[in-house]
Amino acid sequence: MLATALVLPLLFAAPKVAAQPDGDPPVPRSGTIDGTTATLTFSEAVVSTDPGALEMAFLLDGIIDVDASVSPSAVSIHGKTVTLTLGTGAKEGQAVTVIYEAGYVGNNRLKDAAGNAVEAFYDFALTNNTGLDKTATPPAAPVAPTVTGRSPSSVDADWSAPADNGSAIIGYDLRYFQGDSDPSSDDDWVGANHSGTATSATLFCLAADSAYRVQARAVNAAGAGAWSASGAGSTLGPNAASPAGTTGAVSFSVEGDGRVRIDVPSSDDVYHVLYYQPDRAVPTTEYAVAIHMGADAGVTLTEPLGIGAAGAYRVATFPRDTPDDADCDGTDDLTELARAQKTQQAPLNGAAPFDPRHGAVAIPDMETFRELSFLGQDAELKHLQGLEHVKLYVEYDGETPVKVYFINSNTYPWHSYFFDAMGLAGHWASPHRMRGEIIYYPYLRAPNGEVGAFRYEVPHRRFAQSYELVAANMPFLRNNLYTAPSRDALPRNEEEQAVYDALRVPPILAEDLYGTSVFHALNGAVGYGLLRVFGPGERPTFRDIAILRQLPNDLPTVAGVISLVPQTPLSHVNLRAVQDGIPNAYIGNALEDETISGLIGRYVRFEVTTAPSVPDGRNDRRLGATWSIREATAEEVAAHHAARRPAEAQTPVRDLSVTTYRDLDAIAFADSDAFGVKAANVAAMRDFGFAAGTVPDGYALPFYFYDAFMTHNGFYADVDD
Q: For residue 563, what are the β-bridge partners?
């Protein structure tokens, strides 16, 4: 099918600084050390009733300074600043970090005026000023930057280095304000991301056709200098033909897997950003969902998710030598894509890169997902036991998700552990954060119709925006993502059902998982035998691993069962499997799975493992069951069956003393040795009190008649031969 999207010029609102939610504790912002004097500056004023008991440790080149314990006379607190005297001073050039253990009891914790206690932090780096020239002063103020419109959403700022006043300039701070004149308060300036000593920068994600003021200041070892005068400039108009980027009309088709296909003209010197608009009637609401490098032969654009019912797309094209910043984090797209670590290449994620041992800001492939995921029965959260999963954090600016952190879930079993290790500001459960998990189900049929799906589990409705951010940073997805409310959100599920139903990522609840899976483990065991496919009327042998196209009414002894149709635990096939101790599973795609179909006609080892269900309704741990199959040798098959064979011959007991048939009502269960177990079971059910006709009336013939038939015709001799 072909659809055309209404395309409007790119409009970005001016970035906002998220207000610190009420109740957030103070956090460390900066710190210095000069010999034995260390100074920490916090985000707001702090107090402590027992400052001498502060639990702090200082690491000098990674080694704890054991003499750095402090006494009341060696600690002073003035507003946001805490000054401490160490027992051993830092040396020039040493790396110095501080650990604050917080002291969870007593009154010695640092707090703000509202009583919010500073949380523990680790490896907070201090600027080491030991041995520096104390005659140096902060740099002079630069001249006003030159501000030039670069695109409808960005400006370039350039300035000259000022006098360094005796100490080399080590960096610059940059800030901006939307308007024709400077703001009346310093709090109204917006800080821009700038690192290094370059005297130019690009400010991204600005409003189109708008005036901006930009200021810069230089920093050296003595501190930050004064702010420059303001440079003034404007972004380009929304329809400007700027060198920074163009937007092309979008017509698209939909692939068989439900994802979009957009063929666009291109060249080697450009790249393309694909935007998704969930409601074509509101084109100003859109999400960057994919980035594709250009090519002279043209490019086909797609994205990780399926197209929604009312959605539209927009393509923005940018020259590679003047890239844009799709995630508005202050670093252009191509710089982010050029990072050495693939897990930190995240041009659609506002989160800054961090040590990959802790996690990732992008999951580019299944290999990375496996490296970050945890799979085991000792998962800290019961509903995740036996299920492969990666924990994550999403951070919001207002109602807009802007950052996602994928957590190394082997290292951090709880979200809060990762939060503390990363030293993220504020509290791990603050309203502007949302935690969740991505769970992988290898046997779940995905929205694209293929087997193997992911499930994004989060607490509340804000996932409606966050899954766009999460999926954009898992570019290997192929419309195989579901959403689901977590256990905490289940009580609200009905009232929020309309929100779920409107999503382009379908929801799936715990009670629906098992029925959507193409694999059910019915009986866990190991079997060896010849892998063969059987249709109706075909009869396997005791050495066959039988692939059953249909469930038979009667199944002889076999070495294992794979059914292509679902079974129930009480089906005849499974009861026989339990009785014989053989593996039994429903694997609906067995003939399409090369792991299985490639071994048909060969000896195999087939194993099924089962997992218990969980009672809280949050998940279905039966989906944590597994199967495995490999080729086996004839010797392995023979040894397996020899080990299962009884050491001594076993002959069922037959009571031949009953020589006449009996009505079912005259047979007891204890008469099974004379009439057989099936007849005795039906007879016993006659006493269960069911309505008339539920259990059939009738009679049964004893084994006596079978024995007489075999003896009279001499068939026992034939059997012995």
A: 548, 586
CB atoms within 10 A of CB 160: 11
DSSP three-state, residue 716: helix
Report yes or no: 216 and 131 within 8 Å, Cβ to Cβ: no
Between CA 416 and CA 120 the distance in angstroms is 12
Query: Around Cβ 721, how many Cβ atoms within 10 Å?
Result: 5
Amino acid at 257: D
| Pairing state between β 121-128 and 28-34 | parallel
Alpha helical stretches, state H, 558-603? 572-580, 594-597
Structure tokens at 507: 């929801």
Select from 137, 60, 136 the least CA-distant residue to 99. Answer: 60
Alpha-helical segments (H) within 26-164: none
Q: Give percent of the chain with pLDDT exceeding 70.
A: 83
Q: What share of the chain is helix, strand, coil (3-state, %, to 5)?
A: 15, 30, 50
For 714, how many CA atoms within 13 A lie in the half-sphere containing its CB? 1
The amino acid that residue 347 corresponds to is P
- Distance separating alpha carbons of residues 573 and 587, to the nearest angstrom: 14
* Residue 626 CB-half CA count within 13 A: 7
User: Does 66 score more than 50 pLDDT?
Assistant: no
Give residue 478's pLDDT: 95
Count of CB atoms situated within 10 Å of the CB of 581: 12
Q: What are phi and psi of 510, to 5 degrees?
A: -60, -40
pLDDT in tens, 469-520: 999 999 999 999 998 766 555 555 566 666 666 678 888 877 677 778 888 8
Cα–Cα distance for residue pair 353/337, rounded to 1 Å: 12
Identify which of 667, 701, 705, 716 has the alpha carbon closest to the alpha carbon of residue 687: 667
- The DSSP symbol for 497 reads H
Q: What are phi and psi of 491, to 5 degrees?
A: -60, -25
Alpha-carbon span 230 to 334, nearest angstrom = 29
The answer to whether 304 and 471 have CB atoms below 8 angstroms apart is yes
Mean pLDDT value across the chain:
83
What size, in residues, is the chain?
A: 721
> Which among 67-76, 655-664, 688-697 has the top mean pLDDT?
655-664
Give CA torsion, residues 285, 289, 290, 296, to 10 deg: -30
And the tokens for 302? 């797609």
Dist. CA 588–CA 337, nearest whole Å = 40
Which amino acid, 301?
A: L
Sign, Cα dihedral of 644, 645, 648, 649: positive
Amino acid residing at 18: A
The residues pairing with 606 across neighbouring beta strands, listed in sequence order, are: 527, 629
The answer for 708, left when phi > 0, alpha when psi is -120 to 50, beta otherwise, is alpha
Residue 52 is predicted with a pLDDT of 66
- Structure tokens, 114: 């509202």
